[in-house]
């Protein structure tokens, strides 16, 4: 699993370094640099070939589109992971709170209804008792 | 008010037809229809009290209580379950939420050259545009032949100021430990409008092609031997772990 990422990372780093060196050559070009320039251009092609080969190993990797928003804004994509985890936890807390409140409400309602409609609530409890244990 | 008294008061006036009032006259509720196919049990339809509760999932007119339905089954995974512990993400949670995560993209990719903290919309390098307008993918990647390389014969001399973009590095805090790394990242000194003359003179000396070649050779040697530089073949553990 990690190896395919390592390969891709290696190829990408080489490619970026190649492009950077190409930029240095071009920024102040000399006639003697032509051979080097040609070599770098062909390295671009081979670099792209190598990156393309890595694609087959990574076809099952899914990336959420929301991460792209972070990257496009120049933000750290780990912030997306962080915010996902925080949101999941916050939602968990929220839903747990709702469920606890509903349970309390249910028990309170049954209690009060039993005072007003004792016979009906006895029937209800017996029916519910058959299906599910009282929670 | 006249219609009201007509309904509940006067006996002389006949009750108005249901259409004008919008509801029909009071009638006893019809007996519940028999369940289709005889139902799940052998309980007669007449005794509503003994009908199996929740058998009729529509909930209408079944059992002693109107709209009484079967409770949903208990599942292990609910919204109140701590999903982080359930999916064994505690380590990830501590890693990302325990300590402060730096805001900028350059903190995530420290070795990437150029101004990567700028929004992608500024220089048309956004990933969103790549998804919305994917490039037309042709065949395979073919090497550039001799005749094609003739098109890459450049004029000598430095680039005009407008094109000098990639050597502008954002100001970085150069620590002692990262001294080697910053040197390898930025061989050409950053060009800013505020450069003084003595810096330009230094640059002219450095741009001597022989010195350039020597510098490149030195860089290659450093890349091979330096453990910090991700460079030409070694992948750094910290950067690779951050991608996962």
From TrEMBL, chain A:
Pfam families: Med10. This is Mediator of RNA polymerase II transcription subunit 10. It comes from the Eukaryota. Component of the Mediator complex, a coactivator involved in the regulated transcription of nearly all RNA polymerase II-dependent genes. Mediator functions as a bridge to convey information from gene-specific regulatory proteins to the basal RNA polymerase II transcription machinery. Mediator is recruited to promoters by direct interactions with regulatory proteins and serves as a scaffold for the assembly of a functional preinitiation complex with RNA polymerase II and the general transcription factors. Component of the Mediator complex, which is composed of MED1, MED4, MED6, MED7, MED8, MED9, MED10, MED11, MED12, MED13, MED13L, MED14, MED15, MED16, MED17, MED18, MED19, MED20, MED21, MED22, MED23, MED24, MED25, MED26, MED27, MED29, MED30, MED31, CCNC, CDK8 and CDC2L6/CDK11. The MED12, MED13, CCNC and CDK8 subunits form a distinct module termed the CDK8 module. Mediator containing the CDK8 module is less active than Mediator lacking this module in supporting transcriptional activation. It is found in: Nucleus. Keywords: Activator, Nucleus, Transcription, Transcription regulation. Belongs to the Mediator complex subunit 10 family.
TrEMBL record, chain B:
It comes from Echinops telfairi (Lesser hedgehog tenrec). Coiled coil: none annotated. PANTHER family: LUNG CANCER METASTASIS-RELATED LCMR1 PROTEIN (PTHR22536), MEDIATOR OF RNA POLYMERASE II TRANSCRIPTION SUBUNIT 19 (PTHR22536:SF1). Pfam families: Med19 (PF10278). Its main location: nucleus. This is Mediator of RNA polymerase II transcription subunit 19. InterPro entries: Mediator_Med19_met (IPR019403). Keywords: Activator, Nucleus, Transcription, Transcription regulation. The keyword NADP does not apply. Component of the Mediator complex, which is composed of MED1, MED4, MED6, MED7, MED8, MED9, MED10, MED11, MED12, MED13, MED13L, MED14, MED15, MED16, MED17, MED18, MED19, MED20, MED21, MED22, MED23, MED24, MED25, MED26, MED27, MED29, MED30, MED31, CCNC, CDK8 and CDC2L6/CDK11. The MED12, MED13, CCNC and CDK8 subunits form a distinct module termed the CDK8 module. Mediator containing the CDK8 module is less active than Mediator lacking this module in supporting transcriptional activation. Residues 26-38 have a biased composition (Pro residues). The keyword Nucleus applies. It is found in: Nucleus. Residues 171-182, 212-224 have a biased composition (Basic residues). Component of the Mediator complex, a coactivator involved in the regulated transcription of nearly all RNA polymerase II-dependent genes. Mediator functions as a bridge to convey information from gene-specific regulatory proteins to the basal RNA polymerase II transcription machinery. Mediator is recruited to promoters by direct interactions with regulatory proteins and serves as a scaffold for the assembly of a functional preinitiation complex with RNA polymerase II and the general transcription factors. Residues 42-55, 234-244 have a biased composition (Low complexity). Residues 1-55, 171-244 are annotated as: Disordered. Belongs to the Mediator complex subunit 19 family.
């Amino acid at each position: 699993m990690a190896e395919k990422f390592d390969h891709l990372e290696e190829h990408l780093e080489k490619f970026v370094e190649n492009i950077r060196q190409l930029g240095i050559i071009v920024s102040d070009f000399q006639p003697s640099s032509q051979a080097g320039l040609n070599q770098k251009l062909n390295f671009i092609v081979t670099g792209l070939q190598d990156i393309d080969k890595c694609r087959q190993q990574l076809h099952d990797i899914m990336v959420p589109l929301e991460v792209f928003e972070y990257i496009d804004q120049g933000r750290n994509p780990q912030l997306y992971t962080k915010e996902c985890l925080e949101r999941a936890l916050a939602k968990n807390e929220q839903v747990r709170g709702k469920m606890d409140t509903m349970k309390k409400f249910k028990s309170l309602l049954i209690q009060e209804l039993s005072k007003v409609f004792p016979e009906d609530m006895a029937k209800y409890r017996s029916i519910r008792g058959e299906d599910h244990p009282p929670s | 008010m006249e219609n009201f008294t007509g309904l509940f008061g006067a006996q002389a006036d006949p009750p108005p037809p249901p259409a004008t009032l919008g509801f029909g006259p009071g009638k006893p509720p019809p007996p519940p229809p028999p369940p289709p196919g005889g139902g799940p049990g052998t309980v007669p339809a007449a005794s509503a009290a003994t009908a199996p509760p929740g058998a009729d999932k529509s909930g209408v007119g079944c059992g002693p209580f109107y709209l009484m339905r079967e409770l949903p089954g208990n599942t292990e995974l609910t919204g109140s379950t701590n999903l982080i512990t359930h999916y064994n993400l505690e380590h990830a949670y501590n890693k990302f939420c325990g300590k402060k995560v730096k805001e900028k993209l350059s903190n995530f990719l420290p070795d990437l050259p150029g101004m990567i903290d700028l929004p992608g919309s500024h220089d048309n390098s956004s990933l969103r545009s790549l998804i919305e307008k994917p490039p037309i993918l042709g065949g395979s990647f073919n090497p550039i032949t001799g005749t094609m390389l003739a098109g890459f014969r450049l004029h000598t001399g430095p680039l005009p100021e407008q094109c000098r973009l990639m050597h502008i590095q954002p100001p970085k805090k150069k620590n002692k430990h990262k001294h080697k790394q910053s040197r390898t990242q930025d061989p050409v000194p950053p060009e800013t409008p505020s450069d003084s003359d003595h810096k330009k003179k230094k640059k002219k000396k450095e741009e001597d092609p022989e010195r350039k070649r020597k510098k490149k050779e030195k860089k290659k040697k450093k890349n091979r031997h330096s453990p910090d530089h991700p460079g030409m073949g070694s992948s750094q553990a910290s950067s690779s772990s951050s991608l996962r």
